[in-house]
Fold this protein.
Amino acid sequence: MAMFPLTLADIGFAANQVSILSGINCSIAAGSRTVILGANGAGKSVLMRVMHGLLPPTSGRVQWGDTPFRPGAQAMVFQRPVMLRRSALANVAYGLKLAGVRDGERMERARTALTRVGLAHLADRPARVLSGGEQQRVALARAWALDPAILFLDEPTASLDPTAAAAIEQVIGDIHASGTSIVMTTHNLGQARRLAEEIIFLHQGRMTEKTPAARFFAQPVSPEAKTYLEGELP
Ligand SMILES: Nc1ncnc2c1ncn2[C@@H]1O[C@H](COP(=O)(O)OP(=O)(O)OP(=O)(O)O)[C@@H](O)[C@H]1O
Ligand SMILES: [Mg+2]
């Protein structure tokens, strides 16, 4: 696939002369499950927005395979999903409309996506009355319906109870199994262990390591990550 690897070459991001990201070099391979860890304010959300193409970097390059940008190859889901004032089904269908999917196809694809996240029975319910966990599943269905090459997830379970979070983790696993690469952030280390194949660790806007997950949790390479894990683990 020509869009992989997604490569970040010497990425820097600054706002009002304050450096938020600097010297970020990494690549995301097809089929990967990457979790970005780091303390509050480390730059995780900014990094994902740069990867996604929402924020142009101040310096460096984002390459999708051999091209600079691939609109449509990626989707993103945030901590608090934004639901339009219409049914769950219509929310998913609207995402497809924005992506240019033709009329006749939208409803069927939206229904399929809702079924895949276990929400077929709530398709006609107004999205805004759904629980937080259900809304997050609608958001995942909306993203999955686009069949993205990469899905970016910024703390997708941060405001959910453990049961709802487990349901979301299941859906994320299913999305990955369907062939979509996953890049996500979380402050839940149990979740990172369950979902990550690879960990990117950010400290004050710098990437101190990118390590296979099993190795990261057994013995992180960077002192910054070691300190973070010691603080977070019981
Ligand atoms: N558009 C912006 N303009 C100026 N500063 C910004 C902007 N976006 C983020 N920042 C700053 O960049 C730093 C990194 O923010 P970011 O949201 O990426 O952190 P994070 O690692 O996602 O933290 P958290 O774990 O709390 O979500 C913060 O100090 C934040 O205030
Ligand atoms: Mg964040």
In short: The helical segments are 44-52, 88-98, 103-116, 132-144, 162-177, 189-195, 213-218, 223-232. The first helix runs from residue 44 to 52. Residues 1-70+181-234 form a domain with the Rossmann fold fold (CATH 3.40.50.300).
